[in-house]
Amino acid sequence: MQYSELKPKQQEFIQWLxxxxxxxxxxxxxxxxxxxxxxxxxxxxxxxAWLVKDIGRVSKRGFYNVPELSDFIREASGTASDEDAxxxxxxxxxxxxxESSPGSSPVESSATVAA
Length: 115
What we know:
- By secondary structure, this protein is mostly helical.
- It has a domain at about 5-80.
- It has six helices and three strands.
- It has a three-stranded antiparallel beta sheet with strand order 1-3-2.
- A hairpin with a 2-residue loop joins strand 2 (about 60) and strand 3.
- It is elongated, with a radius of gyration of 24 Å.
């Protein structure tokens, strides 16, 4: 899931992780106890269920992957918009190339040219 797809409260928790000093986009694995501490520091009793109850986020016992933090860091540093712009430009080029392929251009047949 991308950061932009999260609900506002989920985005807020990602912001808390960032504010707690997690600024490396390659380090998105956290222990349950750490997630609980960040939650406690910000007025929540427990680590968010959307993180710790999702078995798809578990890498090993007690460790949870939060890739949305990486997206948030890229957005905060401005590199996400640069990457998105590059991807969009490449997609536009691919579309324009497919529209101007040789099969779609009008070609005179040899019978028309001979006449």
